[in-house]
Amino acid sequence: MILKILIVGMGAAIGSMLRFYMLDRLTKVSNLSNSWMVVIINLLAAFGMGYLSGLSLSYPWHTLVTSGIMGGFSTFSTPMNELAQSLNQDNRKQIDLVLLKTGIMFILGLPILILGMYLA
Q1: What UniProt keywords are attached to this protein's entry (predicted)?
Q2: Cβ atoms 30, 41 nearer than 8 A
Q3: pTM of the prediction?
Q4: Given this model, what pLDDT does residue 4 score?
Q5: Which of 11, 40, 59, 91 is the most core-located residue (most Cβ within 10 A)?
């Protein structure tokens, strides 16, 4: 069990650093806000998760890349933090925008995940 935790933790560190790097780079070359970049990254993570799951990797590689790297690359906490801040400020327009982005991630995420599995 300790080995699995270490594998996931190492993968999560790699994934979160990759997410940070991509956010930094994409923000510099795009007019999209950081929160829209998170939507794009989460959709990329859905594709990556589908593709990597479709490869039928064995342990420990499957654990490293799916739970670890893809888990660290994707983020659910960012939209939830945005939602909490918007609720605290009673900012209806911002609440609606966060709910829209979260809906997009879930509605598009499933077919993108399936596409990744199919292409693997």
Answers
A1: Cell membrane, Ion channel, Ion transport, Membrane, Transmembrane, Transmembrane helix, Transport
A2: no
A3: 0.89
A4: 95
A5: 11
